[in-house]
UniProtKB/TrEMBL annotation:
Residues 99-171 form the Transposase IS4-like domain. Keywords: Membrane, Transmembrane, Transmembrane helix. The keyword Transmembrane helix applies. The chain crosses the membrane at residues 134-152. Pfam families: DDE_Tnp_1 (PF01609), DUF4096 (PF13340). The keyword S-adenosyl-L-methionine does not apply. It comes from Deinococcus carri. Residues 10-82 form the Insertion element IS402-like domain. This is IS5 family transposase ISAcma5.
Length: 179
């Protein structure tokens, strides 16, 4: 029985583009029983809807399985590889060099609930929450995100963000700040 389609689902063609970037089955282990297309669609569902893992609809694989793959992809760099692949592909399609040479740095403080982990008060904005330090390329495509407590000043977060950026995008030479 086929499950109903969600707005967060990838098409099969979109999935084919990133399938090679997903980790293969472990050698010598049990064969994988879950279809990776369904796992990726389930992860995208949770990320788009903002629901908890336990509230994943029942027509997806078990939430524990989906969450396990999400964590694995986070730890082994799969998400970063997918982002880099899509970034290069999109830039090439737009007629730009696949590797960006210029970007823009910005930071934004976002409120969060008291139950959240990392948080602090941004004195300038008087906001209690987290701060997203980001760099985008000239097309507005996300290059790097670094999340800190809201109390971390931009002059402290920016050098950390720039050191991550230098490792991932060595061709990047021009980075004006939006602040």
């Amino acid at each position: 029985m086929r499950r109903r389609r969600y707005t967060s689902d990838l098409t099969r063609q979109q999935f084919k583009r990133i399938k090679a970037l997903l980790p293969a089955c472990k050698a010598g282990g049990r064969p994988r029983k879950v279809e990776m297309y369904e796992v990726v669609c389930a992860i995208l569902y949770v990320l788009q809807k903002g629901c908890t893992w336990r509230n994943l609809p029942h027509d997806f694989p078990a939430w524990q399985t989906v969450y396990g793959y999400f964590r694995q992809f986070q730890q082994d760099g799969t998400w970063e590889a997918v982002n880099r692949f899509l970034l290069r592909r999109t830039r090439k399609k737009a007629g730009s060099n696949p590797e960006p040479s210029a970007g823009i740095l910005d930071a934004q403080t976002v409120r969060c609930t008291p139950q959240a982990g990392l948080r602090g008060v941004d004195a300038g904005k008087k906001t209690n929450g987290r701060k997203r330090h980001i760099v985008v390329d000239t097309l507005g495509l996300l290059l790097v995100v670094f999340v800190t407590a809201g109390s971390v000043q931009n002059r402290v977060g920016a050098p950390i963000l720039l050191s991550i950026l230098a490792k991932r995008f060595p061709r990047l030479i021009r980075i004006p700040s939006n602040s």
